[in-house]
Amino acid sequence: MKAKQVFDKLIENWQVKAICFVISLFLYVVYQNQSIDKRVFSVPLAVEAKNGFVSIEPYPRTVVVSARGKAEELAQVRESDLKAYLDLNYVAKDGRYDFPVLITLSDSASLLNPLEIKVTPEIVSLRVEEEITSYVDIQPLLSGKPGYGYSVKNVTVSPEQIAITGPKTMIEKYTSLQTLNVTVSNAKKSFTAKTSVEKKGLFVKHDDITVSVTVELEEVDGSKRFTKLPVKILNLSPGLEIRAMTSDVTVTLNGSLASLENFKPDASFVTADVSHVTEPGTFYINLSYSVPRRFALADGYTKAIPVTFTEKKPENPVQETKSETSQSEGPIEEKITVVETDSGILEETVEQKKR
To answer: Per residue in 164-196, pLDDT tens?
Structure first.
């Protein structure tokens, strides 16, 4: 067939053929639009940097990824099939740069065709800086007050240092990091507590280690005053008795406040030896104190007190006889009867009966 005949055949009824072509194209577009679906994913944004540079500014933690493709294929795509990241590896010095948000697909998602990907935002501007590592001291953070009579003598931590990593200008500001709070409230003995090291924001990083904080306590020395102490009399002469004696006895003890707080003088703490007194009268008697070895007697204590002695009265032998008789015969019960006479006078009658 000659070329002219072919051309004549093609243009024969060209109006009808043109209309059919347009209708076919329209139907194809409609079909494609009906079979194409769209899904939106929220994907974590990572930063890849193996050249020793890091960001010193916050950046979006997630980006929005829109995927278009055939509905049956798009239904197989999961968020885990998408990876969004910023590539800092081409940076050579500190400064501000615009980084494109890069998207990679998993092996299974990359086989889907067609699949159109769009990310928002497309560009992230960051200021980057050289990353360094430094070792800093760990300082214990204590709160509260120990129990009464105790104080903190010494505090140690183990380990003593920790490695921190981050932007150079930030890391150089730190010489130490504190532990989390360790309370010593009302503590009365040494102890060891387990805790962690404080965090310093997003850019200064360190390992999550356990730190042992040992708090050593000691007793605090002080003094306590005791007043109106009882005096125990020793070696009193059989022919004498005490008529009057002051109770104004005061003493101050020095020692551990915790021990002094719980100390209570007993009846033999203050004694007075009166063996040298042989006759009635008022005498100044020296006092003796039985102070425990853990305490010391402070100045200003009562050294002597006036004591008045009198002769001891002899016991009444008649009363003794009556008493002995009563004890032998048993207790006597008195009964009083009141009677009114004819003249209006009240008369009492006492009647004793043995119970």
So the answer is: 999 999 999 999 999 999 999 999 999 999 999
DSSP-derived letter for residue 146 is P
Give the global pTM: 0.61
Residues 6 or more apart whose Cβ sits within 8 Å of residue 151: 217, 218, 220
Q: Which of 136, 127, 80 is nearest to 99 (CA)?
A: 127
Of 61, 63, 74, which is closest to residue 41 (Cα–Cα)? 63
Distance CA 17, CA 19 (A): 5
How many CB atoms lie under 10 A from the CB of residue 216?
13
Q: Where are the alpha helices (DSSP H) in the chain?
A: 3-10, 14-35, 71-74, 107-110, 168-171, 257-262, 317-329
Type of residue at 306? P
CB–CB of 231/249 below 8 Å? yes
Tell me the residue type at 242. Answer: I
